[in-house]
Every structure is written in C-alpha cells, then in structure tokens.
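We read letters as residues; the integers encode the fold. Take this protein.
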Amino acid sequence: MVQSTNYVCKENSVCTDALNELNQGYQMGYRCHCANGYQGNPYISHGCRDIDECAGDEHDCRYHCANTNGSYTCGCPFGKHGDGRKNGKGCTYSDGSIFAGEYYTTHFT
C-alpha cells in the first residue's frame, strides 16, 4: 500500500499500487479506494463518507448499535457484559444490581 500526501487520494481513502495501461505501454501507478467503513469517490475532497452500519444489516449487534467514524460499537444492557455481538460472546448477566436503559459499548474496527 502506498501512503503519501503527494498522491491524489483524499481523506478516508487508501492508495494502493496498481498497473495501468498508458499509451499502449504498461507503467507503474496507483489507485485510490475508500477505507473500510467508508464509501464514495476517493479522488474528491470529502468524497469518502462514513457508512452507517447501524442503519441497515451491516452490523451484528444483538441489542444496541452506535455508528462511529468508519466503524460501529455494540452495547449490552446495563447489568450485562460482553461484546454485544450476535456472532460473538453476546451479553451475559453481571454480578450486582441491574438498572434498565443504560448500555456498555464495545468498539469494532
């Protein structure tokens, strides 16, 4: 992967080495792609925008999903602990008192 401020890839994007065809000959070059958790046009300023994984089925949270820049967090109801994921450890009861309506969160990248 190429990383430099001299390339045309803008914020929230990554620059990768690529072969491209130019004037019937092959020369080394690079391509820009939006970083994981982003989508759009990596060649324009603010072109890669955050994907809201919590808005659809992009997440695997069991109880609570909170969107973050480029990722999301899962939460467990207060009184439970774990990663909050359907395909992970989920949430199990903690020792101590339980108060409804509050969440612990775990960040995933």
